[in-house]
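--- STAGE predict ---
source: upstream dedup step, 1 unique chain passed
mode: sequence only
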Amino acid sequence: MKLAFLGPPGTFGELAALRFEPSAELVPFPSHAAVAAAVESGQADAGVLAIENSVSGSVAETLDILIHDTTLQVQAELVLPVEHNLIVRPGTRTSDVRIIYSHPQAFGQCRRFLQRELPGAQVEAALSTAEAVALMMKRPGDAAAIATVRAAELHGGQVIAHDIQDSSLNATRFVLLGRGTPGPTGRDRTSIAFTFAEDRPGSLAGVLIEFARRGINCTKIESRPTRLVFGEYVFLIDFEGHQDDPQGAEVLDAIRPLCAHVKVFGSYPRWQ
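--- STAGE serialize ---
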């Protein structure tokens, strides 16, 4: 099995891919969009995408891919604890650091540490935490990176501060994207997106009432811009249950007449 992930090796995406399928051939790609495209084209059998962080919230790129760019289905989910580390070239001290590289999500998750320990350092975004270490290692000893211990080991960096994330409960939810729909397990989650033909009071409430009538728990509700008209949104819901369960199929049938469009991202086993 070929499994695509947001590379290069050393990212949290790689760690998630190893958790999903330890025996898979892992293939790195430079963006979540490229991961999805690799699965679409057959370069990979499935792809791993980060979709939500407990501190930073949803990963907009992944949501937009699911909404606009693919018909692939979510096959599974996994929640991975996030442990960020400050990494430097061997011999570099914290007082030497003038620039810090990392993924924007990591900066947001380590804000308090950076303000306390490195308030004057410039932050520079990288495509991934692993790439941040590679960029840092090219500097003459005035840089640091926020990344995984594995990324430090792969590039010869030195960890000078462990677990610098603001929250000890920091975790990222990843999804496995592929073809087909897993069958019901009795402990599933379904993710959907929907739009309305017009903006009028009560539209969203009408959809939510259909879930409430059936006692279906909606575990997540949010919105993204449609990309078409300013002020128009795509709504997204995760709910407990499978689209092929009697209640799941019933609620989807009930909300379709209320919406302009409904898209099911997938029904898949819940992580917890």
